[in-house]
Write a structure and sequence with these properties.
The structure holds 2 protein chains of 2 kinds. Helix content of chain A is about 65%, strand content about 10%. By secondary structure, chain A is of the alpha/beta class. Chain A folds into 2 domains: about 230 residues, no CATH class; about 100 residues, 3-Layer(aba) Sandwich (abc type-2 transporter like fold). A 4-stranded mixed sheet of chain A has the order 2-1-3-4, with helices on both faces. In chain A, helix 3 links the parallel strand 1 and strand 2. By secondary structure, chain B is of the alpha/beta class. Chain B has a 4-stranded mixed sheet, sandwiched between helices. The model of chain B has no long low-confidence stretch (mean pLDDT about 85). The chains are: A alpha/beta, B alpha/beta.
Chain lengths: ~350, ~350
């Protein structure tokens, strides 16, 4: 192994490989997925019912509804817009507040509100929105609630917000997409174009080539991983420890990439493997999303040993003693994969001869 | 047109596609996974807020509540109520004091205990609180001076909501169809870059035979998978002829896009690059069915919308020919135009 040659090959990979689709895909996809899933689960999977309001008179009711956190409020300026929003399901209920509404309510005069209801909205959402509306009107009319409610929380289960549930899956995408694909596709491409054979007849060894490609995958994997953590504000209290775990995960990814690159004949086979076996890498991320699934199931997957310490540091402020065991297992997996990488390099060398 | 030649070409493409046994297995595995994914999704939809009620005295407003989307179930003791809330039987539990009715009648304010599991979202807690307040207002005889005039827009689906897995059905069907775009595009790109298309055209095969053969393979392969999937997941129960026609036009769309991408791409990587952009774009309308209101009017400019909309409306709402004929016409026109462009592109590169 010659560090100078690895450096030269690494520079070549970095400046020429970056023009390729896979390179862009490996960087852009995790970031896109991070933004898209955060938006999707942050808003679309929210259980809050959606209320649309058309209020041309500036009623106090619309201000109260807008400030109320337990519904999603949307304002409209035209009757046709609110009707379309209800028909399309953009809101569950759309209300039209008439002119002079506040005065009528405060003087106790009978008045009327039109509420358009989306036909496909859930019955409970309709009830919650209409009851909330009635409650707010009563507040406006200075009616005092005839009951005192004491809320008592039972059990110790915590609400895990969707953005936290999703972070493991996004992290896996960030680390493994680039980490696996960059070295794998680059090696397969060199094999297909026969440039790998051309390279190894020079003083450059196969180990140098593999290491250079692995290094690029590692740098990219770390870069995207840290960016995703920053976007999600999940660097936690111990960023150095977090980066160490991320680095061990990135090593696992590039080792897998190098093994795939060494044994696969073409890109189609690589994608076919990815399509069917990707679940082995992303399984823990999916399990983390659903707390109902027994969490021990995650231990079956190798990526669990990167993900668990990562989540413990970023979400539970865990220290070294809390994550040590999982980190040692991760190091063990990395070492095992490294031995496999060396074996596949040896095999590639033999086949080349 | 020489149907013998076309048949041979379809066979050739079929075997070329499955030459790599691994890809063949993965294609079948993918189909199985889609079906499994459909069946693991919830088959019912929870439309109601189920609340437990412990009421040592009879309070009519609470016990005879008739609001849609609200189910109040009486339990025999406060302890049982707490257990049921912890076990997740109810989203919340209301425990009324034994003097609740007397206190209300006397114009005083009774203390009501509301038990909520710690993992219940804040909006549900707030909703239950406003519901209790409203029931108490009714019991205390304090009417609302505002009349809320309700009008349902669209078909009122209360009590017969479409479960998540049926909303997912058009999305899965279109994904299955669209994935075949990659396969066909790769096949065409490979043939163009290796020059086998040109070699084929110096045989007695005409260019019309060639494109018909490729088209039949592409359409047939996507169509068979989509039909198999829809048949298993019950998507053919309503108006099967319309659904089959829509799937056929959808498969033609995938094949036409395959022609187009194949004519532009040089290798698998560029097939992937072009294919990914088109796939993401075409997949968006399925997302719109899954999450109504998430996408706006521009979605109608995406051709796959007309496939998704047809499958969703027919399979889930029992729509008929009169409701969706325009969707099918738009799909047909799109297919014809893209096929034509794709064929022109292939011809230009091959000849």
């Amino acid at each position: 192994m010659n560090p100078r040659r690895i450096g030269i090959l690494f520079r070549k990979e970095l400046f020429q490989g970056t023009k390729g689709f896979i390179f862009i895909w490996a960087i852009v996809m995790p970031l896109l997925i991070s933004f898209a899933l955060s938006a999707l689960f942050g808003t679309l999977f929210s259980e809050k019912p959606k209320l649309g309001v058309l209020d041309e008179d500036g009623s106090q009711l619309s201000v109260m509804l807008e400030e109320y956190d337990s519904i999603r409020y949307k304002e409209f300026t035209a009757l046709s817009d609110i009707q379309r929003a209800v028909e399309d399901g953009a809101v569950d209920v759309g209300i039209i507040i008439p002119d002079g509404f506040d005065i009528s309510v405060k003087q106790g005069e009978p008045t009327e509100i039109t509420a358009y209801i989306w036909g496909e909205s859930l019955a409970k959402d309709r009830t919650v929105l209409l009851v909330t509306l009635a409650n707010m009107i009563r507040e406006m009319a200075a009616q005092e609630a005839p009951v005192e409610i004491e809320t008592i929380s039972l059990g110790e289960e915590e609400i895990i917000p969707w953005n936290v549930r999703l972070l493991p899956l996004i992290m896996l995408f960030a680390v493994f997409l680039g980490g696996v694909f960059i070295p794998a596709t680059s090696l397969i491409d060199e094999k297909e174009k026969k440039t790998l054979t051309a390279l190894v007849v020079t003083p450059t060894s196969l180990v140098d080539v593999f290491m250079a490609k692995g290094l690029l995958g590692f740098v990219l994997s770390m870069f995207v991983g840290i960016i995703v953590l920053l976007i999600n504000q999940a660097l936690g209290a111990q960023p150095l420890l977090l980066i160490m775990v991320l680095a061990l995960g990135a090593i696992m990814a590039v080792e897998l990439g190098m093994i795939f690159g060494a044994i696969m004949k073409d890109i189609s086979t690589l994608f076919a493997i990815w399509k069917s076996c990707g679940i082995l890498l992303f399984g823990p991320g999916i399990i983390y999303m659903f707390p109902q699934i027994p969490q021990w199931v995650g231990r079956i997957f190798p990526t669990y040993y990167m993900l668990e310490p990562l989540m413990a540091i970023s979400q539970k402020a865990a220290g070294w003693s809390d994550i040590a065991l999982n980190v040692f297992v991760l190091i063990g997996i990395d070492a095992l994969l490294f031995a496999l990488v060396l074996f596949t390099i040896k095999r590639t060398r033999q086949l080349d001869r | 047109m020489n149907w013998g030649i076309i048949k041979a070409l379809v066979y050739k493409d079929f075997f070329l596609f499955f030459r790599n046994r691994f890809i063949g297995i993965v294609t079948i595995l993918g189909l199985v996974l889609y079906i499994v994914f459909y069946f693991v999704m919830p088959k019912t939809i929870d439309e109601s807020l189920e609340i437990g009620l412990y009421a040592p005295v009879n309070i009519p407003a609470f016990e005879q509540v008739q609001a849609e989307g609200l189910v109040l179930t009486t339990v025999e003791s406060e302890e049982r109520l707490k257990e049921a809330v912890i076990d997740g039987d109810y989203v919340a539990g209301i425990a009324l004091p034994s003097d609740a009715l007397e206190t209300l009648i006397a114009g005083q304010v009774p203390d009501i205990k509301l038990y909520i599991a710690s993992d219940v979202p804040e909006e549900i807690k707030d909703s239950v609180v406003v519901i209790i307040k409203e029931l108490a207002y009714q019991q205390a005889g304090q009417p609302l001076t505002v009349d809320i005039k309700e009008e349902v827009l669209g078909t009122d689906m209360a009590g017969m909501q479409i479960p998540p897995r049926d909303r997912l059905r058009p999305m899965l069907a279109i994904y299955l169809i669209l994935f075949e775009t990659f396969g066909l595009a790769n096949l065409i790109a490979e043939e163009l870059s290796k020059g086998t298309v040109r070699a084929l055209l110096v045989t007695p095969m005409s260019s019309r035979d060639l494109f018909t053969g490729k088209g039949i393979f592409g359409v047939g392969f996507a169509f068979i998978q989509a039909v198999f999937f829809m048949a298993i997941v019950g998507g053919l129960n309503n108006q099967p002829v319309i659904i089959l026609l829509a799937l056929l036009l959808g498969s033609m769309m995938a094949a036409a896009l395959g022609f187009l991408i194949g004519s532009l791409a040089k290798d698998f990587m560029s097939v992937l690059a072009w294919g990914m952009i088109i796939f993401i774009l075409m997949a968006i309308p399925g997302f719109g069915v899954m999450f109504p209101g998430a996408v706006t009017g521009w979605i109608t400019y995406v051709p796959s919308y007309y496939l998704v909309d047809t499958v969703h409306r027919v399979a889930s709402f029992g729509a008929g020919w009169g409701d969706i004929w325009l969707n099918l016409v738009i799909l047909l026109i799109f297919d014809a135009v893209v096929f034509w462009i794709g064929i022109l592109g292939i011809r230009r590169r091959a000849l």
